[in-house]
Amino acid sequence: MFAPSTRKLLCSTQLRRLQSILVIAEHNNEVLSPATQNTLSAAKKIGGEISVLVAGTKCGPASESISKANGISKVLVAESDVFKGFTAETLTALILAAQKQFNFTHIVAPATAFGKAILPRVAAKLDVSPITDIIGVNDANTFIRTIYAGNAVLTLEATDPIKVITVRGTAFPADPLEGGSAAIEKAPEGDYKTDLVEFVSQELTKSDRPALTSAKNIVAGGRGLKSGDNFKLLYDLADKLNAAVGASRAAVDAGFVPNDLQIGQTGKIVAPNLYIAVGISGAIQHLAGMKDSKTIVAINKDPEAPIFQVSDIGLVADLFKAVPELTNKL
Ligand SMILES: Cc1cc2nc3c(=O)[nH]c(=O)nc-3n(C[C@H](O)[C@H](O)[C@H](O)COP(=O)(O)OP(=O)(O)OC[C@H]3O[C@@H](n4cnc5c(N)ncnc54)[C@H](O)[C@@H]3O)c2cc1C
């Protein structure tokens, strides 16, 4: 007979063995996205055998790099021109084929534009509810996510037999991708071509600045900047801080900056060490995307602006005077 505590331990170990997780890697064939490393950490928290799916055109380098992560049993690789542009329609068919062969209990992807396009389709095809944008894992069936634009935290117990999950990158540490040597195998082969969509081309913004979602420092501007040209003030400040530049939705909607800079509920979720909000009022939809930043600095001429309620340092000032002064002093 086992002592009760030992028996409990044995059960949870056995349970972890029964779980098998498929992580969908986001990459550009060469390099994994940082969000994939965060997603891998979340998968490890769920516990169980972890496989990673890397699908692309010539994705050898990305597969190699994830195979080095500790605690992965295999990397399934699918290389074909069909996966050009990483379209959700083709990747969904591949994921379903992998699911049919391996019977995963969890399918997990980053809650980025990539994962958000694919996993709801996969969930619909498997007739289960997607569990989106989790920020915590209690156990293999219980996950934490925010609701009401980040104003309430929900603990969700999933009863579906297959859990299809997207992971908020900022809520989990990046897996260091070292200490392991997982087997690299071919993913199930099949005809994944679809008439639903055709990849034509892609134009990516080229920038020497850090990417918004992984930057340690961010300077973000809002409608208070008044024009796109005035964002130069923020770029100058960002250069001094090696920071990424972001924006509120109002600034994006007004055409000051492109929409890949948008931070918030319907934009990117960020959690840098330093977030400087300039001419941003602090609407809840904006806060939903940045309130987990470690130090928040707000510059706003209105002392009643809600951004001051979440900021660690607040400067009530005209941004057109304060920002150049700050940049010059750095
Ligand atoms: C469904 C939904 C989703 C949304 N998603 C998002 C989202 O993802 N991200 C997002 O940001 N918003 C989002 N919004 C919009 C959000 O509600 C706000 O409208 C938006 O965030 C406001 O942007 P802002 O703070 O730049 O503009 P405003 O609210 O107009 O604030 C401008 C601020 O600049 C200050 N200011 C003006 N001039 C100066 C100056 N010279 N010096 C200093 N300060 C100055 C003003 O005092 C004011 O506080 C969403 C809304 C909805 C309904």
TrEMBL record:
Protein's UniProt name: Electron transfer flavoprotein subunit alpha
Plastid keyword on record: no
Subcellular location(s) of the protein: Mitochondrion matrix
PANTHER family per the UniProt record, alphabetical: ELECTRON TRANSFER FLAVOPROTEIN ALPHA, ELECTRON TRANSFER FLAVOPROTEIN SUBUNIT ALPHA, MITOCHONDRIAL
This protein's record includes keyword Ligase: no
CDD domains to which the protein is assigned, alphabetical: ETF_alpha
Species whose genome carries this gene: Leptidea sinapis
Binding site for FAD: 223, 248-249, 262-266, 279-286, 300
Keywords for the protein's UniProt record, in alphabetical order: Electron transport, FAD, Flavoprotein, Mitochondrion, Transport
